[in-house]
Write a structure and sequence with these properties.
- The chain is mainly alpha-helical.
- Among the domains are: 2-87; 173-245, Fusion Protein Consisting Of Minor Coat Protein, Glycine Rich Linker, Tola, And A His Tag, Chain: A, Domain 2, CATH 3.30.1150.10.
- The chain has four helices and three strands, in the order ααββααβ.
- α2 packs across α4 (231-237).
- The relative contact order is 0.07.
């Protein structure tokens, strides 16, 4: 556009007409001719100056228009770039929003999965604890049953030995009509593992020393008592409480 303006400016310049000077000798008209030539030259110079000024103004106007058009073009380009930048920023923001939304949704899903896993783990722990409790209860029940069975067997064995002790003492006890029929005493005997007597203690006296001594002698006479080899049974039979009543035991 700049070059087109320059061409236009150049085309506007008008070529100056040549100055014609008549060299023919004419004494009467020489002065007038010279004056006319000078006037024409001034007019031509003025016209040329006016045309040069107009051409310069026209050129400046064209340059101003070029600058204005260039400014408009630049502003349009800047506006376009601004629009494109705004669109790019908007697209970037939208992409970031979408990415954030996806991340939030994924985090929500991960949280739900984590909660489910925790619930499942808690349920598993509860089930394992319940199973352990049931197993422990079953083991305890079995242990209690075995202990009860062993205790029953132990008590049965103890009762058997006590019955044997009572039978042995019954054979060696002397009944006497000298003593009242309701007279009674209670003795505690301590036995050794071989069935021999360690000592005898009167826990409850009959009030009659002779009856207490007779009962004590009957016990000593019955020793040694049959004793089990089992240590637990021996513990149960080590100390025996005997009640005596005249006429019965």
């Amino acid at each position: 556009m700049f070059f087109a303006a320059l061409l236009t400016t150049m085309s506007l310049e008008v070529k100056q007409p040549p100055i014609v000077i008549n060299l023919a000798k004419n004494p009467g008209n020489d002065k007038k001719i010279v004056q006319a030539a000078l006037i024409d030259k001034r007019a031509v110079d003025l016209a040329n100056q006016r045309r040069a000024t107009e051409a310069k103004l026209q050129q400046e106007k064209i340059l101003e228009q070029i600058r204005a058009e260039e400014q408009v073009r630049l502003e349009a380009e800047q506006a376009k770039q601004a629009i494109e930048l705004a669109a790019a920023l908007k697209a970037q923001q939208q992409a970031m929003l979408e990415q954030t939304k996806k991340a939030q949704e994924q985090a929500k899903l991960d949280q739900q999965v984590l909660v489910k896993q925790q619930l499942a783990q808690q349920q598993l722990v509860k089930q394992q604890a319940a199973a352990k409790q049931q197993q422990a209860a079953a083991v305890k029940a079995q242990h209690d049953r075995i202990v009860a069975e062993q205790q029953a067997m132990l008590e049965a064995e103890v009762d058997k030995y006590r019955a044997e002790f009572a039978a042995a003492i019954e054979e060696n006890r002397i009944l006497s009509s000298v003593f009242a029929g309701d007279i009674r005493c209670k003795l505690k005997i301590v036995l050794l593992p071989d069935g021999s007597i360690l000592n005898i203690k009167v826990l409850e006296s009959s009030g009659n020393v002779a009856y207490d001594e007779m009962s004590t002698k009957a016990v000593y006479k019955s020793a040694p008592f049959p004793m089990p080899q089992d240590k637990e049974l021996y513990k149960q039979l080590r100390e025996v409480i005997l009640s005596f009543k005249n006429g019965e035991q």
